[in-house]
## 1
Amino acid sequence: EKAGFDHFMLKEIYEQPKAYRDTMMGRISDDGRSVELTEIGMTADEIRAIRKIHIVACGTAMHAGLVGKTVLESLARIPVETDVASEYRYRSPIITPDTLVIVVSQSGETADTLAALREAKRCGARVLAITNVVGSSVSREADDVIITQAGPEIAVASTKAYTSQLIAFYLLGLFLAETLGTKDSAFIAEVVTAMHQLPEQVESILDNAPVLKQVAENLSKHNNLFFIGRGVDFAVAQEGSLKLKEISYIHSEAYAAGELKHGTLALIEEGIPVISLITQEDLYEKTLSNIKEVKARGAHVLGVVNEGFEGEVAKSVDELFAIPKTLPLLSPALSVVPLQLIAYYASLARGNDVDKPRNLAKSVTVE
Ligand code: M6R
């Protein structure tokens, strides 16, 4: 059932190109200029009445939500807040009938996420679920459901579910933008064209897995490391850090690159690995200056960078991994893949049970 792969996690990482295609399938018009989410029952008037969005989820699904916030705010221009589900209800959030609450859950059974959904409904908000499991509790109780077509995810560490959730957010963002008129059809067509290229681009990253295996084997000898990035790169950094912790048991922290000098820089010492994401053109100079800060203190830096920027970045980092060029908003769907592979190979190098890490369950059905 692992289809020739040593672990479910690796199989699921390699299934991502298919998961992207399947999640997009049937949801984009033939001319590629419009997104059709027929599963969303909201009328155009109801969509226009949305004043704010809350995205609520746990773990990796929350990290998809962090990217989702940027996607929805930039495409639909609706303010978005994100909360981890175990915190949401207890901060007495301001949930009004003009709030759209989006819950994200691979399994659709996570107790805290389900409780957040119920609280949102109790307050009169409309709830949209992004889930991978048809018939799950979340899918049954939400008002609208976008099913990610990732297929069953067995490994405890979520990979293809996360990236499919990103695809769902892109589709939703474009759908809302079209309805609200915040983006024109030429722009939508441009994003759709770039989305169609993602599966092949992921394949080309997977072709370079041996390079990442080597990186991971070196990292696996360390007990502490950092992930840094700005904007959506910071959101991906958080996911990369969680993935690594979860299965390799190596301690890591994800930091907004500009925050380092407000405290964490004190932890940087000779030889400490820093993985830096540098995919956002407009933030690129800023992140480079943060890389120089850690380099000056002896860090060993791996830059995950867009093709075409290697020349500039090469001077400032110790190692480079290039990802194919895409639109800035779409880059998380590519940049997370090397981080998944690094986590996988680091776990393997440490002799851990990759698919069933200690202390963790695939689906957390207790609060
Ligand atoms: O099934 P869900 O998406 O609701 O699960 C949420 C988290 O428990 C899950 O993403 C967890 O963080 C993963 N093990 C991370 O790889």
## 2
Amino acid sequence: TASERTFIAVKPDGVQRGLVGKVISRFEERGYKLVGLKAIVPSKQLAEQHYADLSARPFFKGLVEYMTNGKAPVVCMVWEGKDVVRQGRAMIGATNPLESAPGTIRGQYCVSVGRNIIHGSDSFESAEKEINLWFGKAGELIDWEPATWGWIMA
Ligand code: DAT
Ligand code: MG
């Protein structure tokens, strides 16, 4: 829908590599609206909740370690606009960079599944869950209308 929102996060490897601006630019230039933004070192509990559905996988422990070790923050964002959940996933590309199409974010900036630089919600339901998890505090998300909105959303 036109007002749907998704949770996008640049992971610590993406932050270390200076890719935050490029990620933001892609979503801005596509026509989406930034409604929340912050850098945090997540607690182990937050990362485990975020990846709860992967808790049985062999890479889970390493994944949580890499997200939480504080060698760089996670840069968390909420983007809003038409079909942004599905479009966000398409812009990010496949989980394994070997399968991410060239031109997608992962297809352009990374080569390892364990260092794939960015997260994006995979469904409307996960978006809602993840936005609440990472931006749960009141006032962290801003309702505003870009002056260009009517020229982008139809
Ligand atoms: P996505 O991030 O595309 O939603 P996912 O939810 O299946 O993918 O997995 C979450 C993250 O876990 C993924 O971005 C990187 C890591 N991961 C997934 N599969 C992995 C694997 N086989 N080895 C190492 N890390 C993996
Ligand atoms: Mg996922």
## 3
Amino acid sequence: EKGNYRHFMEKEIHDQPEGCQRTIAAYVDTLTDRTAVPGGLDFKAIERIQIVACGTSYIAGMMGKYLIEKLADLPVDVEIASEFRYREPALNAGSLAIAMSQSGETADTLAALRYCQAKGMKSAAIVNTVESTIAREVDVIWPIHCGPEIGVASTKAFTAQVSVLTALAVAAARARGRIDEAEEQRLVRVLLEAPRLIAESIQLEDAVRGIAVEVAKARDVLYLGRGPMYPLSLEGALKLKEISYIHAEGYAAGELKHGPIALVDEHTPIVILAPFDSYFEKSASNMSEVMARGGQVVFITDPDGERHAPAGARVVVTAPRCDPLIAPLVMSAPIQLLAYHVALQKGADVDQPRNLAKSVTVE
Ligand code: F6R
């Protein structure tokens, strides 16, 4: 039940430290600080990974690509299931198919999974419902342990999916000899810190509420990010569209000058997601470009990013400092809370947005 919260979505945002903690605990061994991925799959024997999914699960899959390719040097393709299933993609039997689906019942994701299996691929599923159709049909089930998600807009399932993918990336990196045992242990300890840091970033709710009053007046909002903050910018835009009915787009920040910069004016808030990582300087220069054209920037960063912000940066949300491995988890709460408080400002029904269903079992 909702307890003291007004909406399931609000409760589920606040449930994330616990949901991620329980999920991470199922993928690591806290006695040895090593990864312990259930299912006994040999990551050395896998040539490629093909992730298929829809909506927020697709965006989580994209985050998985960024994490797994960088850490484990294992190629990952991610595709929207409804496109994948009909376009006759070329596949290789040595690839592993991963169906990402909170419900485990999404029709297009199930069909895309069956397509992969028919090509002789081994399969796995990252699901919240282990009794679901998708879970029943795969070789390996990788559950998330965030508890049932009731709000139509996915929040805690997203961060739990990303938690699993982060653990898989570390495990694959170790299995493929890309990192040694000491580095695996360091990364596992970083991952185990994530729940506490997510809890800290949820504390930004008051700051975000103030910003939401301004954002709620907009007709369009742009979200920009680089590296793992690019998928997160897609997720921020999707959340805002779904529950506040404000048109929003997520873009790779480097794409700004290839089109979207034409949209920048004083009426269009630009949310820039940029912790102080190896991409920061580039994102900061995009921020300056936006400000030079009168754009209102909402800058979501960390303490070092705030210190190095270009002059004139006004609206800043400062998430806790963390290792880049877990930045996608720590930076999720601010964008979810922004969408939530903008929707409240607009009086929208957050848990039951118009035209949307929790589980899409028709194509
Ligand atoms: C967005 C959202 C949807 C789902 C999508 C896939 O907030 O919840 O985009 O992510 O319908 O659902 P599952 O993960 O159940 O396959």
